[in-house]
Amino acid sequence: MPQWASFAVFFSVVLSVYGGAHYYLYSWLVRLAEPSRRLRRRVALIFILLVVSFPFARILARYDFNSFNYHLTLISSIWMALSLYLFILALGSDLIFILYKILSFGPRLPAGKSLFYRRVLVACIAAGVLIIGGFALGEARKLRVTRLEIPLIGLPPEMDGFSLVQVSDIHYGVLTGNGKLSKIVDRINELQADVVVITGDLVDEGVSHMEEMAKPLAGLKSRQGVFAVTGNHECYAGVDRAVAIMKKAGVTVLRNKQALLPGGLQLLGVDDPTGSRRMGNPLPDFDRLLSQLDAKKPSILLYHQPIQFEKVASAGIGLQLSGHTHGGQLYPIIFISRMIYPRTPGLHRIGESRLYVSRGVGTWGPPMRLGSPPELVFIRLRTPGKQLGGSRVG
After folding, report:
1. Of 388, 394, 392, residue with least CA distance to 150
2. For residue 266, which of 54, 83, 248, 380 sits 20 to 30 Å off, Cα-Cα?
3. pTM score above 0.85
4. How far apart are CA 279 and CA 220, in angstroms?
């Protein structure tokens, strides 16, 4: 599917679902609070502007980046999360009212007081949504470091303690600019890893100023280099453009190929299949990549999505590093994410092979997280049989 057609389909779905949810919210507000006709018109207009502002800001970002676009994206993105929680609480209140009428439980409201109590309910729900939003904004800014020790099949004794940092899903764009990226780079450099790996979605959908990220990205330091694979958002942004920027910053992009590190450590990388399929690009030849593997040597696979782990384990790859899901990013989307990707963020194992799924450091849509804090992953590889120190979050 051509890129413009893919975006047209995406925004049509967003507007349909998002618009329908806002129609329900408007009806709920009018039904409970009974505002004046003038206020109803204003609320309706505001809701319409909020619905169209998010896709409009995304389109505008492809052609220009300025203060107006930044604030439009910020407001519309935050509202996206707030409207989700408002929708959930409004729906919950309606269900309670239905049960109240059917089952006739609880005290009856005094005559003439019904409107007052309904307006109080609306105000309490609105306040609750704002509190939830504040927590979610705060959690998204608290970047953690998850520290792991993982035994790697075939790792020679002289490589014991070899370290790497996994960073995933930065989503560089309008809301994650050079300032935030520089802070992430500084945190990574503080860990002084042997290798830094980027497991996809370094960029968001295409933005006009994407080339600017090369400068802070070039500040990444490690003894054996910085490696990356593409995610689905690199394809949306223009994969060739994104890869060129990464290469300019000194990042080695593994597009269905491998790099050989000291000690015979094989670092394999594969393009994201979903992004390739939607953009009409050839699918990565995953089987061909696996056929190049030397099973006697240690190996790590970088794969944006937490899929194909059974095939990876059967091929003898010792560790797969993935991201993509953001851990669901926000409750209750977390539960939907778990249904789509059963291997949730954290460490998984099949035989002697491991998979670590990172929650990522950035966000998509709302610059908010709730129940899924951002993380960098520091991994110290161990020769099988060595005593491990476990894992911790710093």
Report:
1. 388
2. 248
3. yes
4. 30
